[in-house]
Task: inverse folding
């Protein structure tokens, strides 16, 4: 019991609930072991369950092409700054990707699955197409 919080404002966060979940997760037989979906519904985990987070689209893949160039510290700073600016234009304050309909071609209308920056060495546009 020393490893689990002694008191909590939520009655589901008890040592007994934690032990119950662990015992179900540590079952050797996979047919008898708790599933991920069942674990998410367990009282000890369900306190933090956020359906939008669990069923969110997979994260975007990183484009390693930009790593093939030698950049100075200043160039990296510029690339990172531009990447942040694109992210801020294409995501809301909660990190959810905005969708853009129609368009005037502004930077804020970068397609949903694409992030761009300018390579500081060659001046070419680097697209992290995802």
Result:
């Amino acid at each position: 019991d020393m490893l689990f919080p002694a008191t909590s404002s939520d009655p589901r966060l008890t040592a007994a609930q934690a032990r119950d979940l662990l015992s179900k997760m540590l079952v050797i037989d996979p047919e008898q072991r708790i599933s991920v979906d069942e674990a998410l519904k367990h009282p000890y985990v369900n306190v933090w369950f956020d359906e939008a987070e669990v069923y969110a689209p997979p994260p975007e893949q990183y484009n390693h092409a930009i790593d093939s160039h030698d950049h100075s510290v200043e160039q990296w700073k510029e690339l990172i700054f531009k990447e942040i600016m694109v992210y801020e234009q294409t995501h809301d304050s909660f990190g959810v990707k905005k969708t853009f309909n129609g368009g005037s071609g502004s930077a804020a209308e970068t397609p949903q699955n694409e992030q761009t920056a300018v390579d500081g060495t060659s001046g070419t546009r680097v697209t992290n197409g995802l």
